[in-house]
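Hello Y.,

Per our agreement to keep a running log of every chain we model this quarter, I'm adding this entry. I've kept the format consistent with earlier entries: sequence first, then predicted structure.
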Amino acid sequence: MKVNKKLIVGNWKMNKTPFEAGILALEIAAKAKSINNKKCEIVICPSFVCLDRVSKAIKNSNVLLGAQDVFYEKSGAFTGEVSADMLKDLGVRYVIAGHSERREYFGEDDEEVNWKALEAAEAGITPIVCVGESSEEREEGREFEVIRRQVLEGLRGLNRGSFVIAYEPVWAIGTGVVATAKQAEDVCKFIKGIVGKDVRVLYGGSMNGANAGELLNMPSIDGGLIGGASLKNDEFIKICQS
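Predicted structure for the entry above:
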């Protein structure tokens, strides 16, 4: 079954104060009124401290709330962490798990990503499980081997339909370098071969208003995980319109 509804997710990373995030969310929500929500689902993921402000700003709009991370325990002595139940209470519908920056800077491995995805799904939040190869792994011709491992380990125990996958080649994150449409399509098609054609697979990696149309027109790419371009309301909406 082909996925007909695109999913566009803005990952704001560690940007915007709560005040600034509220303004950007209001601007995006206002412009999102022109987007057909039967064809495109829009999610924005601010930092934890901005979630409440953004939740109020997008209330009763076409925009849904997402979070950038989640912890894998329900509660306890885990200073600085945030649980899935806390996120759900704020209205979070999607959460990113295993972003390449979390893997690189905080040492998250496939097992920890899986724990986070399971905890989110149990709370009724859809995890967006990120996978992707480094430039070295691609140069060595191991990209499909790496992706297969990350998919199988990261999704262990999850029910089909309870998750989204985001393919983000590490060499294209925040670099301005974009995978060609064929490169992105080849990997997304490979992922669908593992999880099923009805599972939404997003592309992430320097997608912007200029290249979104070509990427989103590929048969196996069901949306985008957008970084820098999601911090500019006009650019982000242009991607959604694509």
